[in-house]
# Entry
Amino acid sequence: MADMASRVRVTGPLARYSEGFGAALAEGGYAPTSVADQLRLMAHLGRWLAGEGLRPGDLTPVVAERFLLARRAAGYRRFLSARGVAPLMEYLVAAGVIVPVVSPEPPVPGGAVLAGYREYLVSERGLAPSTIRNYLIAARLLAAQDGLRLESVTAGDVTRFVLEQCGRRTGSATILVTGLRSLLRYLHLAGFASASLADAVPAVASASPLPRAIGPGQDRLLLRSCDRGTAVGLRDYAILVLLVRLGLRVSEVAGMELGDIDWRAGQVTIRGKGSRADRLPLPADAGQAIACWLRGGRPGWPGRHVFTTLLAPLGPLNRGAVSAIVKRAALRAGLAGVSAHGLRHGAATGLLRAGASLPEVGQVLRHASMLTTARYARVDHAALSAVARPWPGAAR
# Structure
């Protein structure tokens, strides 16, 4: 079966790219039969291009759709949509054969300022992509206000905008005003405003909820739900151990690379928010779980990420995939409402109940501010009961 691909003959204008395409598919984890099927599709496309008098560089999305229509008319039953031809198109783009068609973005209010602001968030602040998206949402909303220019925004504009927006979106008001303050600081730093108007943003009243941690013993149920006799189970178990034992964020697990683990020193480098990197002790059970995954489950993908997909095309897991792993484990274990962030909260509250101080909890969770860690004091009921005053009039 391994030589099936070598028996597929690609002729015409695509012939010179067939060997590289087949190698790329094999490297991406495609099975030999799938590689052969993709090469047959490539051969058909090559013959069609030759018949139409077209070159590989003429393969625009419109031309590809014409090919798919001809393929359907010829009676083919597989690879009849843009999704089916996507691996080949993506390879030809990566190889520089096809120049991707980029639709011009429609002009948006304050576009030049917003572009500079985005670059500032990426290069100067080093924020996570999700944070950048939230901040840009607030910036675009402000820029879209009638008669308002970001280059000359006033304190009155800011107040009116916040009052209007927060009346509509109570759940995301805190995110909105945080992003707005960030934008106003940038406008001052970039020279668009003579002074920072960040202090002009009205405060939003909110009571942050108590951290919702997993219950006692639920972490063991999650871990037991993984079938470590399979590659999926080895991977998911290693991820869950890291989340439970170190309280990592899903983005930190997804971004972990092979070079981040110092096996001799028993340490791991965690790359967190704001391009921050911290070295933490690697618990023995977490190290053992990762080693089992690397030896017995991780496919031969050449990338450096520790945790990968198991189906072609192979690649690193993203944060959404890590969250989904936790949800599937919770479903198998019969636990409702368990999330990856709940495991992080569980690690924090477990440390507190074991006698750790708030500064120590903050160091493990790598909080930038003690104010973030301080909210965990509210879940340490034993410590709070020692300082609680009796209710007036209650029985002594």
